Amino acid sequence: MKTRASFVQSIVTPCVALLALLSGCAGFTENVAGNAMADSEDVTPDTGTKDGEGLPDISAPQDASDPVVPIPGQNIGHSDIPTETVDHEVDKSVAARFESAKIRSTGKLLRSAAGDSITIVLEINGGCVKEGESFAYDQNFFFADSKTFAYSFRGDTLLLSKISEPDPYEADQQKYEESFIFVGGTSGKLDGIWKHSQCRYREDKMYCMNDGYDQYFKFDGDKVEYRITDRVDYDYMQTVFVDQLFDFIGDGGSIQLETPYYYSDTKYGQESAGISILSKTNTTMKFTHADKTFDLSVDYARYKDSLHVTLKSGDVSCEGTVREMEDVVTEVCSDDNADYLWKSSSGAYTYERMNSREFEACIDGILGRNQND
User: Fold this and answer.
1) Of 42, 136, 80, 202, nearest to 335 (Cα)?
2) CA-to-CA distance for 325 and 313, rounded, in angstroms?
3) Are residues 129 and 216 in the same domain?
4) In terms of domains, do 309 and 344 share one?
5) 107-153, pLDDT tens digit by residue?
6) What does the alpha-carbon distance between residue 195 and residue 197 come to, in Å, rounded to a whole number?
7) pLDDT at 165 (0 to 100)
8) Domain annotation covers residue 235
9) What is the number of alpha carbons within 13 Å of residue 318 lying toward its C-beta?
10) Could you tell me the pLDDT band of residue 85, with boundaries at 50, 70 and 90?
11) Given a cut of 70, is residue 267 above it in pLDDT?
C-alpha cells in the first residue's frame, strides 16, 4: 500500500521552514577577481541567539522540480540581473508590495566592522508551548535564529553569499560558493527594501525558481524586518500539488494539499496518468481521465495561511482545505487542538490542519476504487 501524506506530518513543511539559504553558513566575501575568501572578521550574535532552522526559506522544497536555468539576458521579473540598472518604477513596485505583505518576523541586523558581512537575527517573542501534557501560551517565550552572510553588490543587485554543502546524491562533494540575488534596493547601500528574486548563483552559473510567494527583507540600521506575500497571477496549475493530483488519479499515491505554492513541470505526470487537458487558466483546469471529466479550481490560496481547492466530476465535488498558523494565538494553543499542533525548530508549536485524507477518499469515490488500493 502506498504511503499517504495525510498519515504523516508534511515532508514539505519542515523543508520550507528552513532557510537553506541561511543554514550552515561559513561567511565569505569576494576579492577583486571574484574568488571566495574567508570573512575578515567574525560576527557573533547577541547572547541568547541560536543558529537554528527558523529563518525564512529561499530554497526548493522536496518533490519540487529542478531550478530553471535562465537563458543569458533573460528577463526574470527585474531587468537582466547581472548587468542592467533597475528603474525607479521597479523600486516603487517592490516598496509597494512590501507594504502590503504580511510581517513574518523582525529582529536585529549585525554588521561586521570590515563592512563585508552581516548577521541576520530574527526573533520570536511569545509562543505556544507544551507544559507536561498540556498546551499553553507563554508570553515570555523567546527564540532568536541567526545566520551570517558575506554581502556584495553586482550592478543594482544585492548578493548574500555563503559556502554551501552539496546534496548527498551529488557526485561532486566539494563545497561551493552560493550567492542569493536580491533586487529593489539601491546599489552600494545595504539599508532599504530588498526582494528575493528567486535566483541564485552557484559558482558562476545562475539558477532560478518559480514558486508562488515573494520574500522581502527591510534593512534599517541595526534592525531587520522580514515579510512575505503571494505572487500576483501565479500559475497554480503548474505546481507540485497538481503533479501529485495527476499521479493520485492515475496510480494512487498521495496528495499534499499544502504544495500548490511550489513550481513543478506537470507534463510527465499528466502523460503518465493518461490525462488530457481541455482548458486551463492560472487557477482552474478542465481535464479528462478515462471516461470522466474533471474541473479543478484553486479557490483561495494564501501561503502559510489558508487554502481551498475544489475538484468536481459529475455531481460529486471534492473540497480540500488547509489552515496554517506559525504564530499560534492564545485561543488556538489548547489541548483541543493537540492533533494539529506541531513542534517547530524554535521549540514553540505551530498549527497545521488539513483534510488530505478526506480529499483523497472523495476522489477515490469518483474513480470507484477503495482508498487503500
Assistant:
1) 136
2) 32
3) yes
4) yes
5) 999 999 999 999 999 999 999 999 999 999 999 999 999 999 999 99
6) 6
7) 84
8) no
9) 23
10) very low
11) yes
Which three three-digit cell numbers place residue 331?
485561543
Measured distance CA(138)–CA(52) in Å, rounded? 20
Q: Do both 220 and 248 map to the same domain?
A: no
Q: What cell was used for 311? A: 475538484
Residue 65 identity: S
Last residue in a domain, options 205, 230, 255: 230
Residue 310: which residues within 8 A CB-CB, separation 6 or more?
Answer: 295, 296, 297, 299, 317, 318, 319, 320
Q: How much is the CA Rg of the chain, to the nearest whole Å?
A: 22
Mean pLDDT across the chain = 80
- Say how many CA atoms lie within 13 Å of 177 toward its Cβ: 18
The three cell numbers of residue 51 are 543558529
What domain range is 156 assigned to?
10-230
Q: Are 189 and 289 contained in the same domain? A: no
Domains identified in the chain, total number: 2
How confident is the model at residue 97, as a pLDDT? 86
pLDDT tens, residue by residue, 354-364: 999 999 999 99
Q: Which residues pair with 229 in a beta bridge?
A: 214
Q: How far apart are CA 1 and CA 10, in angstroms?
A: 19
Pick 331 or 38 by higher pLDDT: 331
Mean pLDDT of 181-209: 93
Q: Which three cell numbers stand for residue 365?
A: 469515490
How many CA atoms does the CB half-sphere of 328 hold within 13 Å? Answer: 29
Provide the sign of the torsion angle of the four alpha carbons 94, 95, 101, 102, taken in this order. Answer: positive
Half-sphere exposure of 265 toward its Cβ, with a 13 Å CA cutoff? 8
